[in-house]
């Protein structure tokens, strides 16, 4: 008997180690977290807005904002 068998039980206890129905169900949502997607688009949008020398950064960066919104919508997020 190895120390693993003593720790995890005997090999005949495989039913105890089998995944339960709760563990095999998919997560409540398959959608990733909003912070984890469209990182490049978000960075470009933020840099444009923060470092704009224009009087109207929103207008100047409109294309990047739309690109970010389109990317997020592709993952099921409304921005």
From TrEMBL:
Protein name, per record: Cytochrome c oxidase copper chaperone Cox17
Keywords: Chaperone, Copper, Disulfide bond, Metal-binding, Mitochondrion
Intracellular or extracellular location(s): Mitochondrion intermembrane space
A biological-process GO annotation: mitochondrial respiratory chain complex IV assembly
Record-linked InterPro entries: Cys_alpha_HP_mot_SF, Cyt_c_oxidase_Cu-chaperone
Keyword Zinc-finger: no
One of the record's GO cellular component terms: mitochondrial intermembrane space
Superkingdom in the source lineage: Eukaryota
GO molecular function terms attached to this record: copper chaperone activity; copper ion binding
Native species: Penicillium argentinense
Pfam family membership, one: COX17
Keyword Protein biosynthesis among UniProt keywords: no
Residues annotated to bind Cu cation: 35-36
UniProt family annotation: Belongs to the COX17 family.
Gene3D superfamilies per UniProt: CytochromE C oxidase copper chaperone
